[in-house]
From TrEMBL:
UniProt KW keywords: Aminotransferase, Repeat, Transferase
Source species taxonomy: Bacteria, Bacillati, Actinomycetota, Actinomycetes, Streptosporangiales
GO molecular function: carbohydrate derivative binding; transaminase activity
Protein name in the entry: Glutamine--fructose-6-phosphate aminotransferase
All copies of domain SIS, residue ranges: 29-172, 194-329
Top-rank taxon: Bacteria
GO biological process terms, semicolon-separated: carbohydrate derivative metabolic process
CDD domains: SIS_GlmS_GlmD_1, SIS_GlmS_GlmD_2
This protein's record includes keyword Iron: no
Stored Pfam families: SIS
Length: 344
């Protein structure tokens, strides 16, 4: 029986095409709402927060703007005012109905920020209605609790946002994304070997750096949600500062990298260090170099680094769905989770 999660992973090429077709013509609207701002503040929780990490790195690396992740509790719990003049606040929520994110985006506007919503909830969702500009993704209904296509379409919307903020990238690279994702779905690499390697393990460390850090965080979250693994998502810079001590024969590492870019050599070196210490290292992406250094490897997308995270997450999604079934867990309905999470 095909799970909803696996079906929705397969729907991502079409969802990405529809989202990009809808949002790319709106780059000028982003430019106008961002006029007069100099910093970007991302407001999100959960999977959307992992998407925001991509937005932060992309904004700082390619537009030269300072970008930060918000602490919503400043608005919702401490109820403090902050001077946000000159700030573009971007709220991300797949449903557009997470009250904390809606409230925090409204707070940001009240504090002087210009506001953008990124949501799959449509223009009538509370988050979209609270924003100066709503970038609505076209993922369609998502039935599995673990987000897949709503996450990748959020990344697509963030790429469009970066274009509107003047990113020094080639917008035509986005045209390649749906086909690159389709190719990964058809040929994810040595999936069975990685599933077998993780099936008997209580935990795993998932690591990447820079633009790929968001993929490491999201892969770790999916493995926690749907496979009940103690999965730790870390930048490899932070991993080397001490937590690497937990990587051993019972705690393998999943290492994520684009096929190009300044973080690739460090990721390959980390894989060599992990395997040299007798632990398993499973690569996602990183080209032939990371594959050779790894115990087993999943393919990455043939995409430039700035858009690679839109494809890099796909092998992690397929791994999560396959491992959950191997462990006897229903990946569509993990225990303790709902599709829309409200924070007290």
């Amino acid at each position: 029986m095909t799970t909803f999660m696996r079906r929705e992973i397969g729907e991502q090429p079409a969802a990405l095409r529809a989202t990009l077709d809808s949002l790319l013509p709106r780059v000028g609207e982003v430019e106008r709402v961002a006029e007069g701002t100099r910093q970007t503040l991302f407001i999100a929780r959960g999977t959307s927060d992992n998407a925001a990490v991509y937005g932060r790195y992309l904004t700082e690396a390619r537009t030269g703007r300072l970008a930060t992740l918000a602490a919503p509790s400043i608005a919702t719990t401490y109820k403090r005012k902050v001077d946000l003049s000159g700030v573009l606040a971007v709220g991300l929520s797949q449903s557009g109905r997470t009250e904390e994110i809606v409230e925090t985006l409204a707070w940001a506007k009240d504090c002087g920020a210009k506001t953008v919503a990124i949501t799959n909830g449509g223009p009538q969702s509370p988050l979209a209605e609270a924003a100066d500009l709503a970038l609505c993704t076209e993922a369609g209904e998502e039935k599995a609790v673990p987000a897949t296509k709503t996450y990748t379409t959020q990344l697509a919307a963030l790429a469009v946002l970066a274009l509107g903020l003047g990113a020094d990238v080639d917008a035509a690279d986005l045209d390649r994304v749906p086909d690159a994702v389709a190719k990964l779905i058809d040929d994810p690499g040595d999936l069975e070997a990685v599933v077998a390697g993780l099936a008997g393990k209580p935990g795993v460390v998932v690591s990447g750096r820079g633009l790929a850090f968001s993929t490491a965080l999201e892969t770790a979250l999916k493995l926690k949600e749907a496979c009940y693994l103690h999965a730790m998502g870390l930048s490899y810079a932070d991993l080397l500062h001490g937590p690497i001590a937990v990587v051993d024969e019972d705690t393998p590492a999943i290492l994520v990298a684009a096929g190009e870019g300044p973080t690739l050599p460090g990721t390959v070196a980390l894989a060599e260090r992990v395997t040299g210490a007798g632990a398993a290292a499973y690569g996602i992406g990183g080209g032939d170099g990371l594959a050779r250094a790894s115990t087993a490897a999943l393919n990455g997308p043939d995409l430039p680094e700035w858009v690679a995270p839109l494809g890099l997450i796909v092998p992690g999604q397929l791994l999560t769905e396959a491992l959950a079934r191997r462990l006897g867990v229903d990946p569509d309905s993990p225990r303790g989770l709902k599709k829309v999470t409200q924070t007290e």
